[in-house]
Design brief:
The chain is α/β, with parallel strands linked by helices. It folds into two domains: about 100 residues, Urease, subunit C, domain 1 (Roll); about 300 residues, TIM Barrel, CATH 3.20.20.140. It contains 15 helices and 15 strands. Helix 5 runs parallel beside helix 6 and helix 13 crosses helix 14. The C terminus is likely disordered.
Length: about 425
């Protein structure tokens, strides 16, 4: 199939007019101007042009928790991070399984309907797996692990291993990447970090960790006190347990060899020194701006991360802290929010984060994230009016119309105008 449009954004610095892609066997065979692609058509091959549209890489949501989607209508009130966290624990306990399954299915449908073609999901239970794996999306599932009590380390790791084995057995040929979500530096004991490191030596899967998400976390590691110690730990039965040692929230990961190549979520409070440690460890960062703002946290220093060469992706986080899973809404918010800082982000930087950056975060950089010959045909097309090609990223963020097309490995996720 040869698919062209009035506009093409293939990746950073690659905006063109009247261009497109040639797809065969789910792979991008060629990317270029319409006049260059037309002679490549073989007898009987579909050739389609989309007027008033832009073709671009599918968006990739590098971080969410689909199992929490039932909380969309009753997000925990965020007076501060620990208030929100305690509210989340209580709401999660009360969540009905049927409600959670229906909400997860609706959330997956929203991902598909808004041009997301890949997603990284954190899972402590399996409620989102059936709709997610039936959706056609490119998927990474990170099974959640947490236990601050050293006496529960072996039990927690055993449950993780069982979950990973069960998912693998149930979906041996699904387009699925598996990983582990070691929840946060303050929710795993040193013993559990050790057990996890030993397990990963035999199971080389990716690792995701929420890091430097809140000022409460920084207080814990810098001073050994603050609202996590005084309110959260006693409320969940962890009062009196050994505290993870700092002074940096990166220290538990580094002590146990977990920082190298890890995917770190949020990072709002990372210092310049800590950002350099992240870069040296070849780790990646995922920015979740609407969630951070809802929880009263500052804009993350994303420009500093990019200047250091850290790959940065974009995620919505869950519907417990974000109003939607629409990455276009996330992009627009991020653009405007960062304009209030001394280091604003350009529309092209943000689009790159939501495509190539997120692909790198999830370990898919050789597969998708840009429109490059030889990579999978994870492609979307959206309506867009005429305008200067030099401002195509800004136009995509703010003047975009409906989704016209969504493909993963060349297969349509939605009814499509591409045949």
């Amino acid at each position: 199939m040869i698919l062209t449009a009035d506009w093409l954004w293939a990746g950073a610095g690659q905006a063109q007019a009247d261009a497109g892609v040639r797809i065969a066997g789910g792979i991008l065979q060629a990317v270029g101007r319409r006049r260059e692609l037309a002679p490549l058509a073989e007898p009987g091959e579909t050739v389609r042009h989309l007027d008033s549209a832009c073709i671009l890489p599918g968006l990739i949501n590098a971080h969410t928790h689909l199992e929490l989607s039932a909380l969309r209508g009753e997000r925990p009130v965020a007076h501060d991070f620990v208030d929100w966290l305690l509210g989340l624990v209580e709401l999660k306990r009360r969540m009905e399984p049927a409600e959670a399954k229906a909400a997860a299915a609706a959330a997956v449908a929203q991902l598909v309907a808004t041009g997301t073609t890949g997603v990284g999901d954190i899972a402590s239970v399996a409620v989102a797996q059936p709709p997610l794996l039936a959706s056609g999306l490119r998927v990474r599932i990170d099974v959640e692990l947490l236990a601050l009590d050293p006496a529960r380390a072996d039990l927690a790791l055993g449950r993780l291993a069982d979950r990973v084995q069960a998912i693998t057995a149930a979906h041996p040929v699904a387009p699925l990447t598996l990983g582990v979500s070691a929840h946060a530096p303050y929710t795993l004991s040193d013993r559990l970090w050790d057990r996890l490191a030993a397990w990963r030596r035999g199971h080389p899967v990716g690792l995701t960790v929420h890091v430097a998400e809140s000022d409460a976390e920084i207080a814990l590691f810098a001073h050994g006190n603050g609202p996590l110690v005084e309110r959260f730990f006693p409320a969940v039965g962890w009062g009196g347990l050994p505290l993870p040692a700092g002074p940096s929230p990166l220290d538990p990961l580094a002590r146990h060899g977990a920082l190298n190549n890890a995917l770190l979520i949020h990072g709002c409070h990372l210092t310049a020194t800590e950002a350099r440690r992240v870069a040296a460890a070849h780790a990646t960062l995922c920015h979740c701006p609407r969630s951070n703002a809802y929880l009263g946290q500052p804009p993350a220093p994303v420009a500093r991360w990019l200047a250091l060469g850290i790959p940065v992706g974009l995620g919505t986080d869950s519907l417990a802290s974000c109003p939607s899973l629409d990455l276009w809404e996330e992009l627009a918010f991020a653009y405007l929010w960062h304009r209030t800082t001394p280091e604003p982000l350009t529309a092209e930087q943000l689009l790159t984060m939501a495509t190539a950056g997120s692909a790198r975060c999830l370990g898919w950089q050789a597969v998708c994230g840009t429109l490059t010959a030889g990579r999978a045909a994870d492609v979307i097309a959206v309506e867009i009016d005429n305008g200067p090609v030099a401002r195509l990223p800004e136009r995509l963020l703010f003047d975009r119309g409906r989704l016209r097309l969504a493909l993963v490995a060349g297969s349509a996720l939605t009814p499509t105008e591409a045949g």
